[in-house]
From TrEMBL:
Pfam families: RAE1_2_domI_C. GO terms for biological process: intracellular protein transport; small GTPase-mediated signal transduction; vesicle-mediated transport. GO terms for cellular component: cytosol; nucleus; Rab-protein geranylgeranyltransferase complex. Residues 394-524 form the RAE1/2 domain. It comes from the Eukaryota. This is RAE2 geranylgeranyltransferase. Residues 558-569 have a biased composition (Acidic residues). It comes from Onychorhynchus coronatus. Belongs to the Rab GDI family. Residues 93-154, 545-599 are annotated as: Disordered. The gene is Chml. Residues 122-133 have a biased composition (Polar residues). InterPro entries: FAD/NAD-bd_sf, GDP_dissociation_inhibitor, Rab_escort, RAE1_2_domI_C.
């Protein structure tokens, strides 16, 4: 591939169009040269790898407008580079692992960073100064949002504008949010990878009920400020949420319901139908027909525990898209000598017949690369290796729209909505709507991601939901008697199915040596816990005595062995103190240096 991250990648609009074209082509690679087979010795055997990524299927894209108007239109130049994060005036709010509510602490003098503003733009108030050695996350406050005026009548966006502003888009292949107390956030902080990324709060939790989209009160303040709930409902909701936070301490409350679904358990709790809907679909976000009581209670507790760490919602979203996360890890890896090769196909794995272990790979240049361990993403394995593997599929849709699905707030919002199943046997659909201040779409547009486990093709699974929430006609929709606000208009859409290999055990693959470790692509869950657990499991199998993703040494703790470093390289230790984010090129000269940490 010529991009980072595989199926975790993000694309500009033109990049996504190229990706769509590539995955719509039925390329026949059967006649490709196989000279690499001559490089396999008599005491070796080869495991051929797949030559084409077959994890993406049923790709369909639609332009709901005058597509011809974009002929001859070229994409504008690249966006300005991201400023050094954490620097004064960079537009970020520096937060430590804990961010108590603003009213619960006294502001410290001189700790408000330049460019910090009030309100929901970053979903949080300016944080206090981090303690020494405390890792931080950057909650973004971009310059794009204040200049927008959502209250005014939005201008009509044309397809040619989308093409021209294509580099303003960062469109994720997989749609996820980060739980503020999830494994990935903890890993980003522990490993200090968080310094390479900036984040924005997902500020609205929405529900779809009785054909309408409405906001769900989640925190104590939201519940008591809500106009949707009666005073009795507010007390009911707070009592149940309080119970969920320490439900393990009160087993008598759910005894006898362990085998029941969570939806059935909620019916026994004297909750109104609207509260049951909010808890099941917008807070716990579990299946109405399959998830058992304990699974629902655990999911509700996780949601509530994440509230308040970085704002009044449990979720964060990385600015510039989910595809930034793998690039951030690659960047830290490069600083310490790792190399990520783009456009570098691998033809086969070379196995030693005597030991049964993999000893090398052969690339498309005919070059051998030897190693002790090999980590292979599932999509690289050929069909002969995966004959006994049964895959799940994920249905995905990405829409570019002209306004928010709940256009009642002048502030730009990141919203998450769970739409209940539209029929028997159908899954619930997770909808994530991103505004332009997330740096994932151009001004005046919204980027909407829809995700669910597949039952049919992505279009068959998701088009009914799109038609419920959006206007898919080319012209602006008209108000009806039952609609206070017109539906957002879809400007462009793509549907595709993605393979979910997250549940496949290694012994399901045929003939793999013990020192080959298979990792999966993205799963259908909202968070990233599956990927973090998988990475740690593989690492521990290879290096059981080593710490997984340890904190990198601070520049002042690095000691360079003078016997191994030439005099001209000594300046690297000084530059590390003034440049907290050295690029791979800047750090390449110091990769051979002996690095230790002071006791």
């Amino acid at each position: 591939r010529n991009y980072y991250g595989g199926n975790w990648a993000s694309f500009s609009f033109s990049g996504l169009l190229s990706w769509i074209k590539e995955n719509q082509q039925e390329a026949d690679l059967g006649d490709e040269c196989e000279d690499w087979k001559k490089l396999i010795l008599e005491d070796e055997e080869a495991i051929p790898l797949s030559r084409k990524d077959k994890t993406i299927q049923h790709v369909e894209d639609f332009c709901f407008g005058d597509q011809d108007s974009a002929e001859g239109v070229e994409e504008a130049g690249a966006l300005p580079k991201l400023p050094v994060l954490g620097a004064s005036g960079a537009g970020g709010v520096s937060l430590g692992p804990e961010c108590p509510a603003a009213e619960s602490r006294e502001p410290e003098q001189g700790t408000e960073p330049a460019g910090a503003t009030e309100g929901n733009e970053a979903g949080t108030t300016p944080g206090s100064e981090s303690s020494p050695g405390e890792a931080t996350l950057e909650l973004g406050q971009t310059e794009a949002a204040p200049s927008e005026t959502p209250a005014q009548e939005p201008k009509k966006i044309t397809y040619s504008q989308i093409v021209r502003e294509g580099r303003r888009f960062n469109i994720d292949l997989v749609s996820k949010l980060l739980f503020s107390r999830g494994l990935l956030i903890d890993l980003l902080i522990k490993s200090n990878v968080s310094r390479y990324a900036e984040f924005k709060n997902a500020t609205r939790i929405l529900a779809f009920r009785a054909g309408k989209v409405e906001q769900v009160p989640c925190s104590r303040a939201d519940v008591f400020n809500s106009r949707q709930l009666t005073m009795v409902e507010k007390r009911m909701l707070m009592k149940f949420l309080t119970f969920c936070l320490d439900y393990e301490q009160h087993p008598e409350e759910y005894q006898g319901h362990e085998s029941s679904t969570f939806a059935q358990f909620l019916q026994t709790r004297k909750l109104t139908p609207s509260l049951q809907h909010f808890i099941l679909h917008s807070i716990a976000m579990v299946s109405e027909t399959e998830s058992k009581t304990l699974e629902g209670l655990q999911a509700t507790k996780k949601f509530l525990q994440c509230l308040g760490r970085y704002g009044n919602t449990p979720f964060l979203f990385p600015l510039y898209g989910q595809g930034e996360i793998p690039q951030c890890f690659c960047r830290l890896c490069a600083v310490f000598g790792g190399i990520y090769c783009l456009r570098h196909p691998v033809r086969c794995l070379v196995v030693d017949k005597a030991s049964g272990r993999c000893k090398a790979i052969v690339d498309h240049f005919g070059q051998r690369i030897s190693a002790n361990y090999f980590i292979v993403e599932d999509s690289y394995l050929s069909e002969s290796t995966c004959t006994n593997v049964c895959y799940r599929q994920i249905s995905r849709a990405v829409l570019i729209t002209d306004q928010s699905i709940l256009n009642t707030d002048p502030e730009q919002q990141v919203s998450i909505l769970t739409v209940p199943p539209v029929g028997r046997g159908k899954p619930a659909v997770c909808v994530i709507e991103l505004c332009s201040s997330t740096m994932t779409c151009m001004k005046g547009t919204y980027l909407v991601h829809l995700t669910c486990p597949s039952t049919q093709t992505a279009r068959e699974d998701l088009e009914p939901i799109v038609q419920k929430l959006f206007n898919v006609n080319a012209e602006k929709g008209k108000k009806t008697e039952n609609e206070e606000l017109e539906k957002p208009r879809v400007l462009w859409a793509v549907y595709f199915n993605m393979r979910d290999s997250s549940g496949v055990e290694k012994n399901s693959y045929s003939g793999l040596p013990p020192n080959i470790y298979v990792c999966s692509g993205p799963d259908s869950a909202l968070g990233n816990d599956c990927a973090v657990k998988q990475a740690e499991t593989i690492f521990k199998e290879m290096f059981p005595t080593e710490e997984f993703c340890p904190p990198p040494p601070n520049p002042e703790d690095i000691i360079y062995d003078e016997d191994e470093i030439e005099p001209e390289e000594s300046g690297l230790s000084n530059s590390a103190e003034t440049k907290p984010e050295p690029s791979a090129e800047e750090s390449s000269g110091g990769e051979a240096a002996a690095v230790t940490k002071e006791e």
